[in-house]
Amino acid sequence: METLKIGVAGLGRLGLIHAENIYNMKGIELTAISNLDEKINKKVKEKYKVPYTYTSYEDMLENPELDAVCIVTPSGFHTEHIRLALAKNLHIFCEKPIGLDVEDIKNTIKVIEKHDRIFHLGFMRRYDEDYLYAKELIDNGGIGDISLIRSYSIDPIQELDSFVNFAKKSPSGGLFLDMSVHDIDVIRWLTNSEISTVWATGNNKAAPELSEVNELDMGTVTMKLENNVTALLVAGRTASHGYHVETEIIGTKGMIRVAAAPEKNKVTVFNEHGTVRPSSQHFPERFARAYENEIKDFVRCIRENKSPEVTSLDGLRGTEVALACQKSFNENKLVDVKY
User: Fold this and answer.
1) pLDDT digits over 226-263, tens only?
2) Which of 3, 75, 189, 281 shows the smallest number of beta carbons within 10 Å?
3) Phi-psi region of 186 (alpha: psi -120 to 50; beta: other; left: phi over 0)
4) Is residue 309 included in any domain, yes or no?
């Protein structure tokens, strides 16, 4: 089949991961990149032999060779960038969240539905082999009916100072939209149910200055789902041992824990510190295979003209719940999620 030509918009840490994965895959080409920093563009162009580089996303979309775009720009630009790509009849892979404003997302979904292009959303945990194994067990009745689900996402505390500096210059969307949207999606996916009510709390024990920019270094949400499952999520930026992502699902006939300890590999170290199991230190390490798998699935959907499992509606639901969590925290009360 003809080589599929893809442009990557945004070359932050995750954008660089997608660029490398696209470059290394057979049957597709990293044809173009767009990013504001020309120095980064030059390095990426040389490393991956990229034919075209741009400092403007709009300029990149004018390239007639492109078949698809991978959008890894700041979250607040996602919906606009989706619409612009569709206007050029391009297939789209977009990182989470799909957007930050519910009405804007709904309008964008209408545009997506008017086109016959593939739209794929970057909820990479659905492509992680451990989560897929857990999902299969649950769907096959391996633990009976789910009664409770708990999901953690805690970034390394070593990155906290960097995040504080970032938050002071550019809003991330908040802890719940920026991080918990992954847990929200996992909870919806594993339970096959929507979230109906949320109660959120949080604090800034490690970085009090985040309060000045309406951010949190630790947050929790208790949820009630429409199928009467209880869910608890924890999001934070203070894991001293590394990058901690963990999910526990308790059912009527058993329970599952995905990554109860964030182990780097199967190695055990015996030294002056005792018996040590090394931990994953950052998300590119923990979900390296999942990031590859989701791009492979995006390409497969284009080639086979099949709709991805992750849809624009999943993106909308994630944002709706995350915004309800933020509202609950701000107003210190239970909030019903409005769909």
Assistant:
1) 999 999 999 999 999 999 999 999 999 999 999 988 89
2) 3
3) alpha
4) no
Q: How far is the C-alpha of 303 from the C-alpha of 195, rounded, in Å?
A: 34
**Positive or negative: CA dihedral 286, 292, 293, 297:** positive
Residue-range definition of the domain harbouring residue 150: 126-289+318-336
Q: Within a domain: residue 245?
A: yes
* Residue 245 to residues 79, 279, 281, Cα–Cα distance (Å): 27, 11, 11
Q: Which residue has the tokens 């633990």?
A: 143
Query: 289 CB contacts (<8 Å, ≥6 apart)?
Result: 127, 128, 129
Q: Would you say residue 301 lies in a domain?
A: no
Report the predicted TM-score, pTM, of the whole model to 2 decimal places: 0.94
Overall residue count recorded for the chain in this entry: 339
Which strand (E) or helix (H) includes residue 24?
helix 13-24
Residue after which a domain boundary falls, among 61, 84, 117:
117
Give the CA angle between residues 284, 308, 74 to the nearest 5°. 45
195 plus 140 within the same structural domain:
yes
Cα distance between residue 187 and residue 170, in whole Å: 29
Residues 38 and 167 in one domain: no
Q: How far apart are the first and last CA of the chain?
A: 42
| Nearest CA among 58, 110, 56, 112 for reference residue 89 | 112
